[in-house]
User: Which sequence fits this backbone?
């Protein structure tokens, strides 16, 4: 029973790190970083499903898990991108005007 808990726990930790990495890629506006994360995430999920869970990555339930991983990563990327834009916009609004604007 402990082995099952370890496998499930490591799966959740891996998904959490994946979502946080996609959020950081959005913060940095790195499209190639997102692409690399999505590809590596789907490959790792497929390997986990095949060797640990014991089902084919082409089963309908496994495909649904892979699609949800991709959509979750894209959503985290967009949230990171939005937060980055909002904070950069507020930094520009708080900065004092340049000397050329005063004349």
Assistant:
């Amino acid at each position: 029973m402990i082995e099952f808990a370890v496998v499930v726990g490591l799966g959740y930790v891996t998904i959490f790190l994946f979502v946080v990495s996609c959020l950081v890629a959005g913060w940095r506006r790195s499209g190639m970083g997102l692409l690399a994360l999505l590809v590596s995430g789907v490959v790792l999920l497929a390997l986990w499903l095949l060797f640990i869970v014991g089902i084919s990555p082409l089963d309908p339930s496994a495909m649904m898990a892979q699609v949800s991983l991709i959509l979750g990563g894209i959503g985290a990327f967009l949230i990171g991108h939005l937060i980055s834009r909002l904070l950069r916009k507020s930094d520009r609004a708080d900065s004092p005007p340049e000397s050329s604007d005063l004349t």
The chain is about 85% helix and 0% strand. The two ends are 74 Å apart (CA to CA). The chain has a mean pLDDT of 86. The first helix runs from residue 2 to 27.
